[in-house]
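Q: Structure tokens for this one, please.
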Amino acid sequence: MTISQSEWIGFLRQYGPIPRNDNMYDEAIHRIIKRKNIDPIIVESVYLDELIQNYKSPNPKSVILTGTAGDGKTYNCREVWLALNGSLKVWQNDDKVKQLSLPNSKILYVIKDLSELQDKERDFLNQFVHSVLNPNDSNVFLMAANDGQLIEAWKNLDKDPQTELVKQCVEDLLVAEIQEKNGFNLKLYNLSQISAAKLFVQIVDVVLNHSGWNNCNNCSLRGNNQTGPLCPILENRKRLEGEMDKQLILSRVTDLLELCELNGVHLPIRQLLLLTSNMLLGHPEAKDRLMTCSDAMKIVGDNKSSLASIYRNIFGENLTERRRESTDVFTALGKFGIGYETSNTIDNILIFGEDDPELRPYYEELVLSDKYYGADQSYRAKQKEYLEGVVDSSETFLESLRSQRQRLFFVIPREKENTLKLWHLTTFQYAGEFLSHVYRVASEGKVSTQIISRISQGLNRIFTGLLAKNNDELILATSGSHSQAKVSRIFEEYISVPKKRGESMQIRMNANGKLVIEVKLSSSVAAVELPLHLVRYEFLSRVAEGALPGSFSRECYEDILGFKSKLLKRLEERRTIDEEESDNDSDLSFRIIRLNPDGLIDDRIVEVNYDE
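A: Here is the predicted structure, written as tokens:
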């Protein structure tokens, strides 16, 4: 048997979650590429052309590149340096600050890692301050640092007015998530704002089409048109390319990554490369749990190819629990609970589908059709033992069942997503709706009335503490003493959800491009916004469907009560502006809310008469 020992597979393996993954660091990549004569994995940088053109222009601005570790700060600095005819030899020396003369007669200083500067070298920051405040200064900078380093660096500088001015500018750029501020010769690029979902698509494309795969052409594990690939690495590549499922795997992983972003979880390019490597090469019995060509041969010989399933590898199931939980991308994807969450329909198909006439068509399409990672001999044997009540087989079959649920999440066809309730395989049952029918359409103002009604119903149940069905108006109520009470029965105001007399509630993108629930009480007071991410959307939807608020998320519950407090404050402002008249001084009245037999809230007036 002829096995190709591919340098490319070894190189790709270095990007994975192994103890010593040199390819995680830009400084090591060029050494490995040169030594092994391998084409690099090049992902197009979003800002690179813009950065190069800035320094080539007659009046360049200094630039700060910020972001988390692995976002590509060093890569961008190096590529700018080389594009401006900087020497690679100089770049690779130990100098912490690189200096280069530009065609526009400026001197460029490149600080590829601000944290590496010694105290004696921090004088460059004083020069940086001067260049930011003086566009005609002869110096210009390119500086890379994460947010914490950027703030910490100013503590060691003199606290003169100019330094404080530039420090405040940098903080404003970070907080407002903008690139420039008038009056400062500076631009800040936050690489953490680049979409991980879009980057992942680029990375997969570059990896799948890399010239290194040509080394596999003469390998006997490549198989033929009749048998398909015998090599689990090539099988995973074929599936990721979409030959079997019209790129469903790529599409659904991208959806999960986008949902992570919307939940405030940023995954840098380093983690996305790690994920791609693990998807293709993962196997629990390989050295470091990532396959080499030799491992692939042994795995095929031992008939353990099914354990290399790309669907398991997406969640790091090939790794030890400790390693998986210490890897950011697998921690983020693991929060979706795919494999642990399920529905009766899905489990009935997987367990009883072979013998149930109604489920048999699904079983054939989704399980039997996949001989490699679906109904292989091992799975069917465990399934039979489980159904026959063999005691010792239960645990191993349930483990296989979890793997099959993970696989089904990535193979259920798009046209059957609603029928089989695809997102019930995750912790967030409304995640698909949130992504497709809320986030992706909110910029155009097209979130459906049905969705807005459900969210308003969820808000009302939290605002009042009652299982109200009202969904066309928000009900503001208090307990009489404070607005944070679990049950609030003192009525304050109805706010119309559809636009009416200046009142409205809508889900939209705000001026900063953030998805929010926006409530307007009138044209005379400012609107109140509540940032809307996946967890809050799931929370409000579940509450509207009957879940108790405190049982899902205490944090979300308190956030919504805080939102109600802001609405009550705006209500007081509106009353002051509109000079709403109070009741007669001789009477004290309250409006008490209650649920009527139809589950709707109405109110009645309770008056207290008193004499002075």
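A few notes: The CA atoms of residues 223 and 229 lie 5 Å apart. The first helix runs from residue 7 to 13.
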